[in-house]
Amino acid sequence: MLITDYTTYDDVRAVLGVSTDELEDTTLALETYASALLLDLEDVDVALPAAYSALPGTGRTAAEERFFVTVRLFATYAVARQLTSSLPMFGPKDITDGKAGVTRFADSPYKETIKRLQAEYDRYRTRLEKAYAGLTAGAYTLTVPTFLSVASPTSDPVTGT
């Protein structure tokens, strides 16, 4: 599995506010981000990744389309949230060309960005839970086991015939 099955590298960079120079595709393609995203999706429901993969490419119902869009948004923020711990490393304050200098922030200017990403992650997780519930609402049927049933005797108990 790749994160590109659920979101794009550009979408992740966009919500973080960084460029391709600061966060390369090869970094986003690392297995650790894909594995963590899969666990985030399975935390909502273990069958969710399979339900997403089973969606038709075209001709989706309204519930399927809502689920599709919500998964993509949730995935974008889930991956971005994973990257917030290293945001100061790839989001420098200043990059100069003179002897390839890079200046990093001394304090934590990313606190608001991290807080915003966490809030959006929580918001889209709630929406994903609702969209998935709407998608699977009619998918399950309750089968009640039959404990007693009618049985007709093969002979008449009164006459013995």
Q: How far apart, in Å, are the first and last alpha carbons?
A: 70 Å
Major sheet: size, sense and barrel closure? 2 strands, antiparallel
Order of helices and strands: HHHHHHEEH
- Strand residues, percent: under 5%
Structural classification: mainly alpha
**What overall form do the CA principal axes indicate?**
rod-shaped
The tally of beta strands, per DSSP, is 2
Number of helical runs? 7
Whole-number average pLDDT? 83
Helix content: 40-55%
Poorly predicted runs:
none
The order of strands across the largest sheet is: 1-2
Question: What does the radius of gyration come to?
Answer: 26 Å
Task: Write out key terms for the chains shown.
161 residues; mainly alpha; two-stranded antiparallel sheet; 2% strand
How would you summarize what this structure contains?
By secondary structure, the chain is mainly alpha-helical. It contains seven helices and two strands, in the order ααααααββα. It is rod-shaped.
